[in-house]
């Protein structure tokens, strides 16, 4: 049996502990359950009612991502005169250069193209070969032994049914994912393993529920709310345990998501954002015209904000809990003030991260506007940029609001607790007499 420690030793050990949070009172558990159980039940009911049972079938158009594809391999690449392979798209004059900047010319000065022999390695035509001509100024060059993705157009003439559409990147992507998993497990240990499990389950909700349900014609906003709720419950409780601390973070995340949904709905409608601004969204609208594209945009805002929200709410809740364990006599107001000071630093870093993430994703678009020498007003008024601005600002408002909301909830919950450290501290504190105020001695 572990010997009983003194009050000072007990408090000091908890201040530096990194294990599970101290349990809260039965009354508080009932209050938290009264809030979360109906929400969790609503998520389960929503999953059951909206469950799609798979994506709907449709006839492929052969455009963009909506093409039949197979795997292939570059068997051989020969350098030939571009005129001999009818590469009519070459510039009329001037010297042609490779992507490395070197002239691509033969001994006679003729421009050289790559004549690649491609073998289909999957599907019903496995073993079939075809020729792919690669111009010297093409951004993607082929080399012998390289894996490729080939598109199949059954309605085309026999010799034109197959063409190279992309490079096979499965191995480097899988290797990078493996390195990521190893780093997470080595550093995070059991928490890292649970984080990977939560990530896999979140991805399963996204691919098995959210995407097929939207394609089936369900309201994208409703699907996003139910799906985000499921991801939030799965990820937070698996990673951080079924505790009152995690439950407070869940409630704070839920309130912030509701705020993001309301603001997003208001400003997407007010700014007349259609959500149909590029080739991908145009193709989706063409294939599934019943999908509400503006609702899809709002759904993306909610799901995109969820990951960062989890980080903020969990951090703020943990900060308040640790402050309480360091000084159990702190009341709610003191806990809130101390926690919000930590939160202000978190706000600055998170908002900057979110803005830069969206700016990085839209960097090619911003470069196009710079080339056109468009004014700032013209750039921000275009729907492509306005979508990103609304997405960024609405998400940032939700993130900023999550800090005081979650901090206040955590401070109220942990200060109202009358078990564990809080009860011990209050029991050992000087008792008030008459109207005099209790004074604490400072060490």
TrEMBL record:
Record carries keyword Membrane: yes
One Pfam match: YibE_F
InterPro entries per the UniProt record, alphabetical: YibE_F
Keywords: Membrane, Transmembrane, Transmembrane helix
Domain of life of the source: Bacteria
Regions that span the bilayer: 31-51, 171-188, 195-215, 221-239, 248-271, 291-309, 347-372, 392-414
Stretch list, region Disordered: 1-22
PANTHER family listed in its UniProt record: MEMBRANE PROTEIN, MEMBRANE PROTEIN-RELATED
Protein name: Putative membrane protein
